[in-house]
Amino acid sequence: MPDLSRIAIVLVETSSPGNLGSVARVMKNMGLGRLVLVDCRADLTEEARQRARGAGDLLEKAVRTSGLGSALKSFHLSVATGSRPARWFDRCLQPREMAAELRGLAADQQIAIVFGPERTGLTNEHLQYCDWQVGIPTNPAFPSLNLAHAVAILAYELSQGLSEPPSSEAARRLAELGQIEAFSQDLEGCLSEIQFLKKQNPQEIMMTLRQMLARASLDDRDIRILRGILRQWKWYARTKGE
Amino acid sequence: MPDLSRIAIVLVETSSPGNLGSVARVMKNMGLGRLVLVDCRADLTEEARQRARGAGDLLEKAVRTSGLGSALKSFHLSVATGSRPARWFDRCLQPREMAAELRGLAADQQIAIVFGPERTGLTNEHLQYCDWQVGIPTNPAFPSLNLAHAVAILAYELSQGLSEPPSSEAARRLAELGQIEAFSQDLEGCLSEIQFLKKQNPQEIMMTLRQMLARASLDDRDIRILRGILRQWKWYARTKGE
After folding, report:
1. Distance from A19 to chain B by nearest Cα, in Å?
2. Does A168 reside within a domain?
């Protein structure tokens, strides 16, 4: 089994206790150990524990957070799951493509695979925090996978795809998502300051910018440069106002 | 989606109604429509229907049989699922290898993927009816997959692997398993007749012979030749006794 300790399964607003247990079980089957529950709506009921079988420990030690943005701060890359391609992603990866792309990252990069609520999947609000999108090909007449089945298939592909270590020269190191988010907020401040966001739909604009940043696969140096630009911009605005 | 109508999911002695429903759902998600229930121990309860969601039709039209041997008669190839490699199989295929091998068969070959009872998996008694074995790689410390999760992963690999049509020159056409079973029984009769089976453990010997036949990937012509040999043998025994 490959080492999958850098990969976390992030469940957003899960409502079924049975699904919680079932996800924990298949995670442990596939060698995944990190579970993050964002705004979880399901209790750890008897059914949850029963469906988890011997994987109850994953449920006990799951990290619970409020808000997807804060849940993802310490990760380097987040992958949204869903069958509907969202318009701002360049493309929707196949599971196998996702695993191959992840193999290209350095071994210490923290990766979050994000699953939405059972009924709706991830909303646009959630998707803006994600860098890539992955979709499991399904029957168009009956596309909606059970949450644990989707986790099973992606966890299986990850354990297959990451069983070979990355070649060290190709390994990329991305900036932490928290850094990118901090930059986004800094940028939003600047854009408000120059009243750019006043004229447009500010949320829509920021979402588009965040997605641009996500697609750019920024590393630490990129972020230093971008933040340097904003600092310079602010200095310029200040000196001009004097 | 590829055409998977030639593939059936065969569940042996399933005991959980929830698993029945869950298997039906993921089968339909993945474009599989044929479900065979062998000596099924689970009723179509409310839980089964609920877990099936919109795939209740697969449960309704599932073929119910008694005994794995008779269930497999009209198939050309059967694949046993299980994490423990059985000693008489040459090797335990990875899911992706299985899908690649199946792609090499002609499009009209009927294929059964066989899943054992939840607690025990397939027994040696069941395995003698199977041609190949496939195993999903799992965490050695926590290997036991939920039935529906195992179906999800293999159905996913099948839908991936069979999405390309086979090249016509490479397509192989295997004999129906019923034909091979009929030959095995004929052979057993002959071996009893010549008192070969008396000295040995007859069940053990027949199991080994059945597995040899399975590994040989027999086609119709092979079977005609083998049955011809037995006919000739019987004729010889009869004329000698006169």
Report:
1. 11
2. no
